[in-house]
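re: ur question from yesterday

yeah so i grabbed the chain u mentioned. its 71 aa long if i counted rite. heres the sequnce exactly as i have it in my notes:
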Amino acid sequence: MKKVTVDKDDARDASLRVSKQVRDSLKAAAAVMGRPLYDVTNQAISDYLSGLKLGDPLAAIRRNARARRSN
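ran it thru and got these structure tokens back, copy pasting raw so excuse formatting
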């Protein structure tokens, strides 16, 4: 098996490339729709967050609190 080493700079460069592509896509979408960039960006972020399957982040805290009360 080939050993792959990831340099921190390579990961950062890849992250910046992706960020630039996303930013450019948002700018293009805003221009096509004739809407302000911040409006399109906020909508894209909201759509992304609504599509995530996040559990209840406070559920573990509630479970621990109930367990402590019963002891």
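noticed a couple things. Helices lie at 8-33, 37-51, 59-70. also Residues 8-33 form the longest helix (26 residues).
anyway ttyl
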